[in-house]
Amino acid sequence: MAGRRTNLGLLVALPLSLITGGVAFGLGSGWVRWAVLAHVVAGLAVVILSPWKSVIMRRGLGRAKRGRAVSIAFFVLVLVCIVSGVAHSAGLTEWGPVSAMQVHVGAALASIPMLLWHVVARPVRVHRTDVARRALLRAGTVVGGSGLLYLGVEGVSRLASLPGRHRRITGSHQQGSFQPDAMPVTQWLFDRVQYIDPSSWSLRVGKRRLSHEELLVFDDDLRATIDCTGGWYATQDWTGIRLDKLLEDVEGASIVVTSATGYARRFPLTDASRLLLATRVGGNLLSEGHGFPARVVAPGRRGFWWVKWVTSIDVDDRSWFLQPPFPLT
Question: Which of 29, 177, 199, 279 pairs with 10 at a CA distance of 20 to 30 A?
Fold first, then answer.
């Protein structure tokens, strides 16, 4: 099998693992279970094909080909991506100053331009027989083997009582549930923790302004789970005011929530009753790292939707999905 068909299989498995990983990274509920499963199966298909690919690589290393260094770097990144993904699943999440999930995502993103180069520089010809019954049976065998390997890894995790056996459907591990002080403090990309004086802070809602003291009067309670793309989740009891109460009878298509850092996310207006502007967590005021004076609580959405240090909330007629799936800053 070492040859064109192996390369063709990898040409399917690698992009599929990247796409499903991106989908799983963005979803917090619903289809995320299937996205994660597809991501795992595609990743393990790469592992299953690796013995045959190693034969091809040994042949290639014996020839003086242009771009060989890029190919080796690509291989190393894919290897790091697989190892870090397996480590995260097993619960070996902390790798010094970074997490296994950060390494996993970073290696995956870094591999994308190399994958594109590899496709252009080392094209794989597709033949009519590649969709014949025998070829499809081979593909089915690889997929089935990936599924069995996944079940085996899960079985070992449970028998060995590894921390990974308790991870959420997104793959995240529990950290600090019902203990806000133990919940990790993370920001998206270049954001930094904001230290805001509540006496000089106010929330703008359309043309109105509310002080911190005025917001503290509201005591809507919501138990919700924040699931961070960094690979952890925590369930907390949040207190504040539901956005439908805060916005009252406004008309429009979407809600724009903006942070003191300029970070912003747009939500469907129909979600207003499910969103909470929290001022407290676990019965106490939010800490600076968790969004003081106010943050959004968005059940069912990943952590990058839970805007911290909120300074303004607006409603307009623009559709909520007319924004990047992931914040760019």
Answer: 29
